[in-house]
Every structure is written in C-alpha cells, then in structure tokens.
Amino acid sequence: MDWTEIAGFITGAACVWLLVRGSIWNFPVGMVNYVLFIILFVNAGLYADAGLQVVYFVLASLGWYWWLKGGKEHEGVEYSDPSPLQFAGCAIAIIVIAASLQWLLHRYTDSTVAGWDALTTAMSLTAQFMLSRKWISNWWLWIAVDLIYIPLYISKGLWLTAFLFLIFLGLSIAGLLEWRKAKREADQRNKAAEVEV
C-alpha cells in the first residue's frame, strides 16, 4: 500500500459521496482521483484501468459542463433515463469496447487478467458516460462493475482499493435510491407547476 492508493481511497470515496448527493463538486474531486489511480494502476499492471482513468478525466470535464450548461435552455441536465435506443447503444458499446480492449491487452501487454480488465473498463466507461448525462440507470451498471472489481483488486493485492470498491458498492446502491427519489420529487414539482399555470 502506498500514498497513491491511500490518496485514491480518500478522493474516490469523497467523489462518490458527492455524486450520490447530486453535487457538482464530484467532478473536480473525481479528476484528482483519476490522476492518482493512473499512477496506481500502471504500477499494478492494470493497464486498461489506467487508461480508463484518462477517459474518466475527459468524461468528468464533459459531465461538469453538461450538469452546469446542458439540457433545455442551458440550465443543466435533469435526472432521467436513456431511451431504449440509447440503452441499446450503451450495451453495444460495452461489447465492442470490451472485445477490442481484450485483444489489445492480450497482444501488447503482460496483463494476467485481460478479459476482466477489459470488461470492467468497458462497463465503467459506459457507466461514466451515463452518469455524465445524469441517467439514473448508470447506478445499476456501477453496481455490477463494483461486484467484479472487488475480487479483481483482491487478486492483485490491492486490498485498500478493494475495500474502497466495497464502499463504492454501498454508495452505488444509495445513489440509485437517492437519484430515483430526486427524480420523483422533480416530476412532482413539474406537475404542480403545470397545474398552477
């Protein structure tokens, strides 16, 4: 265990806690976390996970913008879910990204967990994109990813990181419940506003 794993633990937990609460501050805290995990994962030989952190950084930048200025009249995106076509696009993206990454990892790295590394990377990229769009179903994908990551990190001796992802699992469940509640409350406010008009 080194300083990057400890700092990654702290910033990661803070980022997801802010995200569960729907706070825009999850993005800058997350960006610090991604840099720390790039260092950690490269040293552990989890190359796809390291590359994933770079993409997370870019998606966090986009998410920060979308949450602030996206949506109708540039007032920020609202809690929603993808359309069936968008959901199918996400599923296809997972399959294509995972297959491509697995091939690359087998061919060009010494990864001992290429399949799992590729799958979790593909799922995480898609979940991060969904999160950036404020799609509630992103939490279901994070729950599945966390259930895979925990034993993967244990197998690599990253005990603190595995514990962090156990915390993430609990926070992902809380996030799902909290975002569903926030959407119900927003829908009720919108209906009440329509009635008043």
Please supply descriptive tags for the structure shown above.
0% strand, globular
Overall outline = globular
Number of strands: 0
Which stretches are poorly predicted, pLDDT < 50 over at least 5 residues? none
Order of helices and strands: HHHHHHH
Number of domains: 1
Q: Pairing-aware structural class of the strands and helices?
A: mainly alpha
Overall pLDDT confidence: 89
Percentage of helical residues? over 70%
What can be said about the biggest beta sheet? none
Straight-line distance between termini = 59 Å
Number of helices: 7
Q: Radius of gyration, rounded?
A: 17 Å
Strand content: under 5%
Summarize the structure.
Required for nicotinamide riboside transport across the inner membrane. The chain has seven helices and no strands. With 197 residues, the chain is mainly α.
Write the layout of secondary structure elements.
Blueprint: H1 3-20, H2 26-44, H3 47-69, H4 84-108, H5 114-132, H6 138-155, H7 159-196
Subcellular location: Cell membrane
Function: Required for nicotinamide riboside transport across the inner membrane.
Family: Belongs to the nicotinamide ribonucleoside (NR) uptake permease (TC 4.B.1) family.
Tell me what the structure shows.
The protein has 197 residues and is an all-alpha fold. It has one domain. The protein contains seven helices and no strands. Helix 2 runs antiparallel to helix 3 and helix 3 (47-69) runs parallel beside helix 5. The chain is globular, with a radius of gyration of 17 Å.
